Amino acid sequence: MSANLSTLAIMLDDAARNATEATQLIETHPDLTIEDAYAIQLLNVQRRWARGERRVGYKMGLTSRAKMQQVGVSEVIWGRLTDAMRLEDGGVLSLSRYVHARVEPEIAYIIGKPLAGEVSAAEALRAVDAVAPALEIIDSRYKNFKFSLPDVIADNSSSSGFYVGAYAKPDTDVANLGIVLEVNGRPVQIGSTAAILGNPIRSLVQAARLVGRAGESLMPGDIVLAGGATAAHALSVGEHIKCMFQKLGDVSFTVGE
């Protein structure tokens, strides 16, 4: 199966680089497991590292209890962030780089000391150097934005880009902050950071456990995106996106061609 995993990783990497749709992996590999999917994800990201990209952190997905129940899983999923995925707050997003680009509000944790394995919320918080408002660009490469759980994990859990706003002190309470996502000045999503597992710090605890299980660690300087706090908004050319976070400020960008 290992040769097949490499082939699938190349297919997804090519789809991401060329902004083209790909066929769901389970259509041709119905026996694909979650373990296979994470192996494909790693092979995929290793191709990016070989092209000169650097690891800068992790993203967490399926951090809404409703989403977990919807897809029938009992734990969150995760993906990897590289420096090429980081976008400039206030800049222009080139929509042509993506297949089905969507945006969702997140809380970002900036790690100050190594963290991995089974940790408590208090231990996780002590490893945090700063918190920040963030937006994640998610973009499934699969046709019609439809996929199974192994499909999405293999596709780096749909993570394709991210914006991080101004850093705040690590002890800033982000458990239940109001969020308003605006498009051209009109609110399209209103929510709370409490939608992230009831408290975003729980997502960081999960991140430490899951990356530790994979033999990795959250390292100083890493960014951890805690998961979507509202439903994602599908992007269109000409939109100005602004997301306002209670206590933390805002993050914004404009969608270009």
Account of the 3D structure:
With 257 residues, this protein is α+β, with helices and mostly antiparallel strands. The chain has a single domain, classed as Alpha-Beta Complex (Fumarylacetoacetate hydrolase, domain 2), CATH 3.90.850. 28% of the residues lie in helices and 29% in strands. It has helices at 2-18, 25-28, 34-50, 65-71, 121-126, 149-154, 200-213, and strands at 55-61, 77-82, 92-94, 102-111, 128-138, 159-164, 178-183, 186-192, 223-225, 233-234, 240-245, 249-256. Strands 1, 2, 4, 5, 6, 9 and 10 form a seven-stranded mixed β-sheet that branches. A five-stranded mixed β-sheet has the order 3-12-11-7-8, with no helix packed on it. A hairpin with a 2-residue loop joins strand 7 and strand 8 (186-192). Helix 1 (2-18) packs across helix 3. The radius of gyration is 17 Å and the shape is globular. The termini are far apart. The model has no long low-confidence stretch (mean pLDDT 93).
Give the topology.
Blueprint lengths: L1 H17 L6 H4 L5 H17 L4 E7 L3 H7 L5 E6 L9 E3 L7 E10 L9 H6 L1 E11 L10 H6 L4 E6 L13 E6 L2 E7 L7 H14 L9 E3 L7 E2 L5 E6 L3 E8 L1
Parallel strand pairs: 1-9, 3-12
Antiparallel strand pairs: 1-2, 4-5, 4-9, 4-10, 5-6, 7-8, 7-11, 11-12
